[in-house]
Amino acid sequence: MLKQMYKKAAIEDSGLVDPRTSLPIRVSTTARLKYRQYFDERYTHRDVLYDLNNKELNEIIAQDFAVSANNALHMFLSKSSNIATKKREWIEIRQVTGRRAFNYFFSIIRSDGIDILTTSTKYVRPKKPRLFVPKF
Asked: I need a labelling partner for 116 at 20 to 30 A (CA). Which of 24, 93, 109, 127 fits?
C-alpha cells in the first residue's frame, strides 16, 4: 500500500518589503510550485528555477511582486476570518506588466505581512473595482 503525503501550504518570508503596504512579503508553496513548473527546462528556454532552494526562489517571486506595487487592480474580503480577531482579511489582485512569468498576483494582506497566495496568467476584472491601502 502506498502512503500519500499531504502538505499544507507553507508561507515563508522572502526578506523583502512591499512598497505599497510597507509590510514584509511572504511566499506560499503554491506560488513556488507554479514558478518551478513554468521555468522547467523541458518547457521553456529561460533560466532554470526548479533547482533553486526556497529562499532564493522566494526572493525572485517577491521581486516580481514588488514591481506590481503601482498596479493593484482589485481587493475583496476573504471568505474565512482570522481566528484570533474574527475579522476577514483582504485579498488583493495585482497586475505585473513586462516580461514576467505570470501577469497577476493574488495576495492576502495581514497585519504582520502580505502573503503571495498564487499567480495567474489571466484575470476577469469586475465592473466596479475596490481598491485602497488597508490600515491596521
From this structure: 127
